[in-house]
Amino acid sequence: MRAETPGPAARLLALLGEERAALLAGDLTALAALADRKEALTDTLESEGAAPRDAQEITRAAQANQALLQAAMEGLKAASARLDLARSGGPPLSTYGADGRSEIHTADRPRVERRA
Protein backbone atom coordinates (compact mmCIF):
# COMPACT_ATOMS: atom_id res chain seq x y z
CA MET A 1 0.00 0.00 0.00
CA ARG A 2 1.50 3.34 -1.11
CA ALA A 3 1.23 6.47 0.94
CA GLU A 4 -0.58 9.21 -0.88
CA THR A 5 1.54 12.25 -1.67
CA PRO A 6 0.12 15.55 -0.47
CA GLY A 7 -1.49 17.79 -3.05
CA PRO A 8 -0.19 21.19 -4.09
CA ALA A 9 -2.33 23.00 -1.49
CA ALA A 10 -0.89 20.95 1.37
CA ARG A 11 2.65 21.35 -0.02
CA LEU A 12 2.18 25.12 -0.33
CA LEU A 13 0.87 25.35 3.25
CA ALA A 14 3.92 23.40 4.46
CA LEU A 15 6.18 25.69 2.45
CA LEU A 16 4.49 28.77 3.94
CA GLY A 17 5.21 27.26 7.36
CA GLU A 18 8.89 26.96 6.40
CA GLU A 19 8.82 30.55 5.18
CA ARG A 20 7.33 31.69 8.50
CA ALA A 21 10.07 29.89 10.44
CA ALA A 22 12.73 31.50 8.24
CA LEU A 23 11.19 34.94 8.74
CA LEU A 24 11.06 34.51 12.51
CA ALA A 25 14.67 33.30 12.52
CA GLY A 26 15.81 36.14 10.25
CA ASP A 27 17.21 33.63 7.77
CA LEU A 28 17.19 35.67 4.56
CA THR A 29 19.17 33.02 2.68
CA ALA A 30 16.46 30.45 3.32
CA LEU A 31 13.79 32.92 2.17
CA ALA A 32 15.53 33.33 -1.16
CA ALA A 33 15.74 29.56 -1.59
CA LEU A 34 12.04 29.14 -0.80
CA ALA A 35 10.90 31.77 -3.31
CA ASP A 36 11.35 29.59 -6.41
CA ARG A 37 9.59 26.63 -4.81
CA LYS A 38 6.73 28.84 -3.67
CA GLU A 39 6.31 30.32 -7.15
CA ALA A 40 6.24 26.85 -8.75
CA LEU A 41 3.68 25.57 -6.26
CA THR A 42 1.55 28.67 -6.71
CA ASP A 43 1.57 28.17 -10.49
CA THR A 44 0.58 24.51 -10.06
CA LEU A 45 -2.18 25.42 -7.64
CA GLU A 46 -3.54 28.10 -9.98
CA SER A 47 -3.76 25.62 -12.84
CA GLU A 48 -5.26 22.78 -10.76
CA GLY A 49 -7.41 24.86 -8.42
CA ALA A 50 -7.89 24.47 -4.68
CA ALA A 51 -10.78 23.71 -2.38
CA PRO A 52 -12.25 26.86 -0.80
CA ARG A 53 -11.09 25.80 2.67
CA ASP A 54 -7.52 25.22 1.41
CA ALA A 55 -7.58 28.56 -0.40
CA GLN A 56 -8.62 30.32 2.83
CA GLU A 57 -5.83 28.65 4.82
CA ILE A 58 -3.26 29.52 2.15
CA THR A 59 -4.46 33.13 2.04
CA ARG A 60 -4.31 33.43 5.83
CA ALA A 61 -0.80 31.95 6.00
CA ALA A 62 0.45 34.12 3.12
CA GLN A 63 -0.98 37.28 4.72
CA ALA A 64 0.63 36.43 8.06
CA ASN A 65 3.97 35.90 6.32
CA GLN A 66 3.53 39.16 4.40
CA ALA A 67 3.08 41.01 7.70
CA LEU A 68 6.24 39.39 9.08
CA LEU A 69 8.15 40.26 5.91
CA GLN A 70 6.97 43.87 6.09
CA ALA A 71 8.07 44.10 9.73
CA ALA A 72 11.47 42.62 8.84
CA MET A 73 11.92 45.15 6.05
CA GLU A 74 11.02 48.03 8.35
CA GLY A 75 13.49 46.71 10.93
CA LEU A 76 16.25 46.51 8.33
CA LYS A 77 15.53 50.07 7.18
CA ALA A 78 15.60 51.32 10.77
CA ALA A 79 18.88 49.53 11.46
CA SER A 80 20.39 50.95 8.28
CA ALA A 81 19.33 54.47 9.22
CA ARG A 82 20.77 54.01 12.70
CA LEU A 83 24.08 52.78 11.27
CA ASP A 84 24.20 55.73 8.87
CA LEU A 85 23.67 58.10 11.79
CA ALA A 86 26.45 56.41 13.79
CA ARG A 87 28.81 56.58 10.80
CA SER A 88 28.14 60.26 10.27
CA GLY A 89 28.99 61.13 13.87
CA GLY A 90 25.43 61.98 14.80
CA PRO A 91 23.52 65.23 14.66
CA PRO A 92 25.24 68.47 15.68
CA LEU A 93 25.01 69.52 19.32
CA SER A 94 23.85 73.06 20.03
CA THR A 95 24.95 74.60 23.35
CA TYR A 96 25.51 78.02 24.88
CA GLY A 97 28.94 79.23 25.92
CA ALA A 98 29.85 81.06 29.13
CA ASP A 99 29.26 84.32 27.29
CA GLY A 100 25.69 83.30 26.37
CA ARG A 101 26.38 82.82 22.67
CA SER A 102 25.09 79.80 20.81
CA GLU A 103 27.71 77.27 19.79
CA ILE A 104 27.29 74.32 17.46
CA HIS A 105 29.50 71.29 17.96
CA THR A 106 29.88 68.54 15.40
CA ALA A 107 31.59 65.26 15.98
CA ASP A 108 34.43 64.24 13.74
CA ARG A 109 33.57 61.36 11.50
CA PRO A 110 34.41 58.21 13.44
CA ARG A 111 37.33 56.29 12.02
CA VAL A 112 37.49 52.57 11.72
CA GLU A 113 40.77 51.14 12.88
CA ARG A 114 42.01 48.42 10.59
CA ARG A 115 44.59 45.94 11.67
CA ALA A 116 46.37 43.40 9.56
Can you characterise this structure?
There is one protein chain. By secondary structure, the chain is mainly α. The chain has a domain of 80 residues. 66% of the residues lie in helices and 7% in strands. The protein contains 3 helices and 2 strands; from the N terminus they run αααββ. It has a two-stranded antiparallel sheet with strand order 1-2. Helix 1 packs antiparallel against helix 2. The longest helix is centred in the middle third of the chain and has 37 residues. The model has no long low-confidence stretch (mean pLDDT 87).
Task: Please give the structural blueprint.
Layout: H1 8-25, H2 28-48, H3 52-88, E1 93-96, E2 102-105
Antiparallel strand pairs: 1-2
Give a short overview:
The protein is mainly alpha-helical.
